[in-house]
């Protein structure tokens, strides 16, 4: 966290100056109070007016200094929080796919919103008071050494003991704050999932069940927050109690040593400085615990992937001949999906994935596309282990078309090109190949027509066609397609399927539809059955299907 603060050294220096100038108003105010007390002792009304005016000016000075301090500090606080938000988002966006999938998407949202908002609200307030308390302690101790060196030594020992007592609360504070963070993540995930499936919940009249679950998550989150606040409150109260007892002892020590003709101004100032070596210590540890717990959360959010995760992913993608799957075995927990699967895929050929629902078709595509790497066996691209290939290099050479399409709130052009520059001939080829021409003719602005949130102003088929154009325009070496024609009508489905099969690329597709005269153009079928991978030529597969149909 310290390194993050020091990235903007000039801003941090301004922040420290803003903290340190508060010390001057503290000392000046305490000195003014001591002088007024001295006037009360002397009874000189002319001195009372003089030091009364001095005290008033001291309070005015304090107000001006506070405003100036705030102006010096606020820019650094804003810029640091903004830098954290940006870096947290960049950290998420640059993760490898498998690293990203270790957490739920809504947990990332909770980190970006809830945790950083909590940090913003608590961290800098605690940092200011921690620095201010530390400078008050040091300044008061130095003045006390000059005025009463023996009392100063006593205060060093007492303040150290109070510091150790307060430090004992640190681990529990950090642990409780981390519990709040995790509870916040679960709450965000639960609410997001409920909202996503709200229509289904209402149709099946089971919203009460999920409402009770949401209430339970809310209660747990608020209970943990309250526990942190209560613990911090009583920690502060206990610290204040120690400070109060110590202040009483200071008063007793000083009063017991008073001699006739003592100077009340000096006595008041000594008492003030002695107390100021105790009260900051009673506040510093609770504040330090707040800093430590919030800083730890931010460090966890900003933590990069371990070097070991990318250490073997430096080889470039280079697919020229074959993809060999050797003894591939993969499970979801205790559920075995693929068992010792073997298949060889040749560059440029078109492969159709077939199998019963839940057989593992989508999983097989995810294994071939580096989403999962905790499998047994090998996937070799021209003899090179897929796990050793750079994910960035791999992603630059493949395209995906999924049944669920994500679209940006932007123009049709930008949703196809994804903000990259392409030749118009390439764009037109992708548009035509995906069957988008009828859509563009209906739109007044054509390619510049705006798409609403995730394509709300488009039909399912139109959204799918944009996704297909997005894949085609990249001219990929491998195209993964998962039920791309499921939401299209017969005519458009045939057009899209034919377009995919006409591409000069290797195609690995899942499709339950059969288009006479088109589906037969696939070179082979990979059938997933009972965990095995079975490669068959298309004509052989069709013969088997016909035999089964005749027997039925």
Automatic annotation (TrEMBL):
Coiled-coil ranges from the UniProt annotation: none
Entry-linked InterPro entries: AAA+_ATPase, ABC1_TM_dom, ABC1_TM_sf, ABC_transporter-like_ATP-bd, ABC_transporter-like_CS, P-loop_NTPase, Type_1_exporter
Transmembrane portions of the chain: 12-33, 53-76, 126-145, 151-169, 238-255
ABC transporter domain sequence ranges: 323-550
A GO term, aspect molecular function: ATPase-coupled lipid transmembrane transporter activity
Membrane topology annotation: Multi-pass membrane protein
Major localization class: membrane
Pfam families found in the cross-reference section: ABC_membrane (PF00664), ABC_tran (PF00005)
Compartment list: Cell membrane
Domain ABC transmembrane type-1 intervals: 36-293
UniProt keyword list: ATP-binding, Membrane, Nucleotide-binding, Transmembrane, Transmembrane helix
One Gene Ontology CC term in the entry: plasma membrane
PANTHER family per the UniProt record, alphabetical: ATP-BINDING CASSETTE SUB-FAMILY B, ATP-BINDING CASSETTE SUB-FAMILY B MEMBER 6
Protein name (Swiss-Prot/TrEMBL): ATP-binding cassette, subfamily C
Annotated organism of origin: Proteiniclasticum ruminis
